[in-house]
Amino acid sequence: MWSFLSIKNSSESGLLGLLRNVMYTLLLVMALPWLVWRRLKRGRYQSGIKQKLCGYKATCPDDAGQEKRIWLHGVSVGEVQLLRPLLERWQAKCPTWKFAVSTTTDSGMELARKLYPTDVQLFYFPLDFTWAVARTLSSLEPALLVLGELELWPNLIDACRRRGVPVAVVNGRLSPRSFSRYRKFSWLTRGMFAKLYLVAAQSESNAQRFRECGAERTTIMTGALKFDNVAFDRHAPEIIKLRELVGIGAEQRVWVMGSTQIREELPAVRAFQKLQTDFPDLKLIIVPRHPERFDHVAGEIEGTGARLLRRTKLSAPVPHDAWDVLLVDTVGELKWWWGLAEIAIVGGSFGARGGQNMLEPAAYGANVAFGPNTTNFRDIVELLLSGDAAVRLESLDEVEPWVRAQLLDPEPGRQRGNRAQQLIASGQGALERTLDALNALLDQP
Q1: Can 79 be counted among the known catalytic residues?
Q2: Is the N end or the C end of the chain the one with fewer CB atoms within 10 Å?
Q3: What tens digit of pLDDT does each residue of 30-81 get?
Q4: Which residue of the set 79, 110, 149, 342 is catalytic?
Q5: What DSSP element (H or E) covers 138?
């Protein structure tokens, strides 16, 4: 009877996989003009097409059967950074294990090549076609698949289930908007959530959303890994190097506008120009979120008449009086630029994006503000605001008067920064809790 049920389930799974392949193909054909436009216009989707469509095949198959191999996936830059401390802690505890890291975006791959050691296999995440998933799993033979935050695909999860590969979500985050969509199509998605072996959620509200989507028995609250992935020391070598590179001394006052999206940079520059008359030692550092926008943002800033310095043009240190606005047109450095900030405004929060990570500037004790739309970081925002450790601005029109007030009277901002550091330090520990939960999966018979 069990043999019959196994064959029946396998047949049903195969039919579903075939139907999904057809659906994915139709969607890909429909989206092809848009993808081509994005590639030509913005330089996106340039690399990894073969691995995405056909799956990953290791160029040098090694001792796959001798030691455990862990496959970690981070969609883009944020998740790639998030997973690094987890991998490092695992490597320290289990030095003979093998690790592979996948990502979806070009910027994610660029950063992964900088962050991860050469013995970690790096590749592009396969699209959810059955053949691409099967080729990747056959090549890696992982003992465990770890997904950063949320990246669920039914064919991949079904294939892992058939091969006995546990799938875990770490730093699990399910926004109210995504939760509503999954609930709307629960007849399609509930089974996918139910097949997860572990969801290590970053907050109790996120954990409850995962449970209601179908992961009732496997969801636990471990806390946000981002709390363990921040730096507190403004005197770190990376920060000192950047400070010397752009000539910033103790007399300069630095405003960092980080993780910005479209239509957020230009208002910041104009606000800076109004402030510069009264505060000549003020410097503005802008760090856009997406690399394909770097040239466009540079053109906008130059159009204002501001003296622009681009990070990629820096081959040697420059004096602080050689520039007014610094455009950080590199990937993976924002974490350290925050360490220069007296005033930190987190972008992606004045439009529809839903905000970006505000923990990093808060951990340095910067005077942190963000816009009205922070749904992606709802729990962290509530923590900071309830502790009077950050400020919410209602629009970009409020940026200039708010920054002016902080420059005129910096002491309240310093006190907010101190409270932010204390809150973040008290929230650490999620990394060890998450690692314990993952190791428990690997210890199962």
Answers
A1: yes
A2: C
A3: 888 877 776 666 665 567 899 999 999 986 555 555 579 999 999 998 899 9
A4: 79
A5: helix 130-140
